[in-house]
Amino acid sequence: MRWRRLVATTLDDLSVLGRGQRALRATALAAALVAGLSGAVAGSPAPTALLLLLAAAIWCAIAPDSHAGLVVPLCVGWQWWTHLDRTTTDWALLAALGLLVFHAATSVAASVPAAATLPRAVVMPTAVRTFVVGLATVAVWAAVRLSPLTGRTGHLTLTVAALVLLTVVAAATAVLVRAVSPD
User: Fold this and answer.
1) Distance separating alpha carbons of residues 125 and 178, to the nearest angstrom
2) Where are the beta strands (DSSP E) in the chain?
3) Residue 134 pLDDT level (bands cut at 50, 70, 90)
4) Side-chain-side CA neighbours of residue 62 (13 Å)
5) What distances in angstroms separate CA 148 from CA 137, 141, 153, 155, one per listed residue?
6) How far apart (Å, rounded) are the C-alpha atoms in residues 66 and 164?
């Protein structure tokens, strides 16, 4: 009986979703699948991780404020860490960007009431932050791929360069968010 009530409540909750909420939840689901499937394409299908990821991603699309959102990056990490020998493949960039979009879409979907119109004051700062972090991710990935130090042990130079770049990006994001913010 408890499951019937849970399913009925969930279906009622989904029936009142606004257009923006539906788009955010579909985006979160698609981004989680992109992140998970990138590992499969890179050389490790890991069916258990993919099935668990699919279940968690669907649950996050239904209830973005649940703890199932923690399972998605854990499944992707499990897949990459335990089943892939080449973690520096180009597919890692797609997995990282998929997880970034999943996180942004899920966090916005969880922070706004289901039937409400998405407020610009929530969407714009999140979009700017996500875009800047995505650019930084691509920049660090490109620096690693183009660096003659790639493949050697001890990437101290790359680590320091990435930390400096991320500090600059964080500062730029703070400035941009204040500029875009309606306050």
Assistant:
1) 8
2) none
3) very high
4) 15
5) 19, 13, 12, 11
6) 34
